[in-house]
Amino acid sequence: MQTFLLSLLLIFMTTLRTSLWATVIEDKTEQSNSEIKEGMKEILKNREVDQIEKEKEEVRISNKWYRGSNLIYDCQNGSYVCVNDVSFYRCQRERLEDKENARSQLRCSPFKDFKTHKACFDKQYEVIHNQLPKMFCTNPKYL
Fold this sequence. Notes:
This protein is of the alpha+beta class. 54% of the residues lie in helices and 13% in strands. Helix 2 packs antiparallel against helix 4 (85-100). The longest helix has 28 residues, at 2-29. The two termini are 33 Å apart.
């Protein structure tokens, strides 16, 4: 009987955590296309650094992403990634395009902007060990 109750409790907690993640994600992804473009322009304007400094600061971690302090989930590769601001806005733009085009599977899911790389890496470490279903990669229209 205790095993059954523990199983029910585990299922309930898993469902609750998944719904909380979905709420956080939807808060970040409900920005309009114009807000995303304005944010991107602001970031690019503030990043007038010479090329050597830029390469030191922003390490390329894949063909698509640069390292930074913003946590995203790359649904195509199935991995959590800490990316820079430009990559974060790219993720938001891709998600918005996927929703507008009614794709059932979204390419990316932006989570949160952290103050430091370390804070992002700590959260990334925590969530990669979480085996919850990745519902945030599915278009809400198809849930």
